[in-house]
Amino acid sequence: MKAARLTAVGMVAAATLWIASGHLLPHDSAHGEAAVRANEAKAQPLFRVAVTPAKLEPHNPTLTLSGRTEADRKVTVAARTGGVLTELRVKRGQHVAADEIIAVLSDDARLAQVAQAKALVEQRKAELEAKRSLITTGALPKLDLVSLEAQHKAAEAALGTAQAELERGLVRAPWSGVITDVPVEVGGAAFSFQGKEVATLVALDPMLAVVEVSERRLAGIKVGETSQVKLVTGQTVEGRVRYVSMPEK
């Protein structure tokens, strides 16, 4: 019995000492670790911070592409009638104005028709003036005056037709531009010359800048937007997007 009591007393004493050790002996805890880290943080040097005010500005994305320039208008100037090419007043690279004569096709038959028509007009006019007084005095019937006036007008119409046909021998520029090709030479003669190409004319104002754009960037290009084109000469010009071709489906 005495041994059992001693054992029980020893166990109670051991338990009491173990519980007391939690209050009397120092130990690590979460609060202690946090305090240590806070002290370490305070010990580190501080960084200098600068503040700059931000300013918002609109930004447009820029798309740089390579392409080529070409004329907006191009025409093949052809002869409107047959004959002999007697004059060629232009050469490749020459600037011409609107309605300027490029070449002259001569035809003796057309010149003769104009001369004959002029003579007939003078004849009908003289007849009309000579008989007008006689008709006025009653020496000739009034119906003759109507007939003479009709003949005079018909002669003037024939003269206008002959002069128009002669004018067809003058090859003119339809608008101002630059001659890029002259495939004929002076002296070429054939009545099949009608419809044959005399020169090629291109208009330099406006000029087109043609570029190719990938489909994934095509959605960002709109008709009417402003664009800048840098030419091979180094000059930079400004224009607007006029046409956007849609990809084939």
How much helical structure, as a percent, in the residues? Answer: 25-40%
Structural class: alpha+beta
By CATH reckoning, the class of the domain at 108-168 would read Mainly Alpha
- Please tell me the CATH architecture of the domain at 108-168 by its name: Orthogonal Bundle
Q: How large, in whole angstroms, is the Cα Rg?
A: 52 Å
Main pleated sheet: 4 strands, antiparallel
Q: pLDDT below 50 for ≥5 consecutive residues: which ranges?
A: 23-28
CATH homologous superfamily name of the domain at 108-168? Helix hairpin bin
Order of H and E elements: HHEEEEHHEEEEHEE
* Count of strand segments: 10
Give the CA-CA distance, first to last residue: 106 Å
Percent of residues in beta strands? 15-25%
Order of strands side by side in the largest beta sheet? 1-8-6-3
| Spatial shape | rod-shaped
Number of helices: 5
| Overall pLDDT level | 77
Q: Within the CATH hierarchy, at the fold level, what is the topology of the domain at 108-168?
A: Helix Hairpins
